Amino acid sequence: MLPKDPFNIRLSGRGGQGILLAGIILAEAGMKDGLNVVQTQSYGPQARLGASKSEVVLSGSEIAFPEVDIPDVLLCLTIDSYVKYGGTLSKDGIRIVEKMVTIEEEVEDAMILPVIETARALGDEIAANMVALGSVIALSGAVSKEHVMRTMEERIKPDYLELNKRAFQKGIQLVSQSDMSYQANPDGAKSGF
Amino acid sequence: MLPKDPFNIRLSGRGGQGILLAGIILAEAGMKDGLNVVQTQSYGPQARLGASKSEVVLSGSEIAFPEVDIPDVLLCLTIDSYVKYGGTLSKDGIRIVEKMVTIEEEVEDAMILPVIETARALGDEIAANMVALGSVIALSGAVSKEHVMRTMEERIKPDYLELNKRAFQKGIQLVSQSDMSYQANPDGAKSGF
């Protein structure tokens, strides 16, 4: 059951962090849930270094506007992506920000999670995208965990599957262990900036 | 150099044919060419069986409308996708239709190519997406072949890389060997239907 229909998710970070794969897995899990889904990936010549984003729109009906304008869930894995995309969020939207961003930037009105540290502790920072996906899904309930796991089996190379599944589970746990005093954006779009 | 800016490409077929991967490789090759690129994938609950599409918009400037409305290049790998998407094409647009579609459906104003047969002759129908990608790029010149090859090395599993590279080259050859009496759509959108 979607918390809202259509439900807009924006995942942002930098090129090489696997944001696209996280978006595709989210999209295909939504399709398995019986939803209509549009997944959009934007690339600029600077995407490898600068901020990049992957967007997913989920709906029980046909999707008229496939581009995420104001996200209901926003993930920022880097400072650059936080600066570029961090300010736009729907009323009661959920903002998830990687903990390392807070070292250099003041972050308010967000769920701060040690996504990258968690992936490193599992043995490889490359799995940060699946930690993040676990947290996004635990917080939003947008798609079923079972269908995410099944899509991971289809999309991830066998050698990396175990690591990625553990990363996904850790991402879910991060949310349940974190400080639940965080309140989803009560003031509507653009709050906190 | 793009034939037109923005340049819209729609790849269509059925779920499981690797249309998404072809779109991603096209998009990332465009980014390596220094272009702005938006890649969009739509999924419906029926996408595994019905018609599915992957769209790529390429531009030298920022892309204002990320969704392909009228494609400049249209690929249809199945009858269902031809029926659903085959009728919309820009003036002077290029329509590429899989030869097997012509067994059951009358196809006019299109470049008819034996994409699936070519992939089978290479040993695996799964490579049809890369044959198609080779033909799309040979016909449109939208992105550089070198950057497609480099992106394939990044995106395709090592075990399948050789097969996919050969498929891509065969797709390029298909175009140069085919009947060049085909004229790109001279009458503008919706012609031929």
Briefly, what is this?
With 193 residues, the first copy, chain A, is of the alpha/beta class. The first copy, chain A, has helices at 19-32, 79-85, 101-104, 115-122, 128-140, 145-155, 158-177; strands at 7-14, 36-43, 51-59, 73-76, 94-98, 111-113.
Molecular structure report:
Chain A is α/β, with parallel strands linked by helices. In chain A, strand 4 (73-76), helix 2 (79-85) and strand 5 (94-98) form a beta-alpha-beta unit. In chain A, 40% of the residues lie in helices and 19% in strands. Chain A starts with 6 loop residues before the first strand and ends in a 16-residue tail after the last helix. Chain A is globular. Chain A is built from seven helices and six strands, in the order βαβββαβαβαααα. In chain A, strands 2-3-1-4-5-6 form a six-stranded mixed beta sheet. The A-B interface holds A 20, 24, 27-28, 30-31, 34-45, 47, 63, 66-67, 157 and B 20, 24, 27-28, 30-31, 34-45, 47, 63, 66-67, 157. Strand 2 (36-43) of chain A pairs antiparallel with strand 2 (36-43) of chain B.
